[in-house]
Amino acid sequence: MTQHHIDKKRAQASFNKASASYEDAAVLQKHVLGEMFLRLKLLKINPNIILDLGCGPGNAGPDLKSAYKPHDLIYLDFAYDMLKKAEEKNKDHFLKAFSSKTAQQFICADMEAIPLLENSVDMVWSNLSLQWCNDLDVVLQEFRRLLKPNGLLMFATLGPDTLKELRAASGAEHTHVSRFIDMHDIGDALTRAGFSAPVLDVMHYTLTYDHVESVMRDLKAIGAHNATAGRPKG
């Protein structure tokens, strides 16, 4: 264990607590969701079973159902309260568009040990959740195990420049900001896991705040507390 190791219980508690405030503060997450769908439009796919990993309050659900009308859509998150929000949101949407006939499952579990059978999923979708894993190789091997032949992994995660201003402003004796993995290291991990022809790109977004307190308030509202082992304990 290093000082950057994620304390999963602390992270889980933070996301549970943030389930009521997440929607209003998740500006970046919603924007990235739209960018991911723009890229999916370039692919001719017809996934019948989709896993929304790290689903949060289920924001991707309505669009995934509308775009693909899958037979099964599985929502997975390690924060139970977030998962309940996802169920509430997508239950309402399902009732309004019941003709899609999509069966929905809601599973509370960790991405590093997914309780699904191998070769059981056509597409794994994950919007800004992989940064909360401790072993990317384990997670990608899990994805590879779950995906059917010719299945698709579609994900977005945070890169090493994320929150660099906070990292530069903090002291060195504690980890004040989580560690984020470089794109090239992610590409190497995808290859090790057995994925073929991985395509990755980098997008830079700047969110401007008047005060550092506003940054902290937004991070708290989405549950993105410092959950590293080397965090200050005070």
SSE topology string? HHHEHEHEEHEHHH
| Strand-residue proportion | 5-15%
Helix content: 25-40%
Cα(first) to Cα(last) distance is 21 Å
What best-fitting shape do the alpha-carbon axes yield? globular
Low-confidence stretches: none
Largest sheet: 5 strands, parallel
What is the strand tally? Answer: 5
Radius of gyration: 18 Å
Widest beta sheet: strand line-up:
3-2-1-4-5
Structural class: alpha/beta
- Average pLDDT taken over every residue: 87
Alpha plus pi helix count: 9
Quick structural summary:
The chain contains 9 helices and 5 strands. The protein has 234 residues and is of the alpha/beta class.
Topology record:
Elements: H1 8-17, H2 22-25, H3 27-40, E1 49-53, H4 61-68, E2 72-77, H5 80-96, E3 103-108, E4 121-127, H6 136-146, E5 147-156, H7 164-169, H8 183-192, H9 212-221
Parallel strand pairs: 1-2, 1-4, 2-3, 4-5
Describe the structure in your own words.
The protein has about 230 residues and is α/β, with parallel strands linked by helices. About 40% of the residues lie in helices and about 15% in strands. The chain has 9 helices and 5 strands. Strands 3-2-1-4-5 form a 5-stranded parallel beta sheet. The longest helix has 17 residues, at about 80-95. The mean pLDDT is about 85.
What labels would you give this structure?
alpha/beta; 5 strands; globular
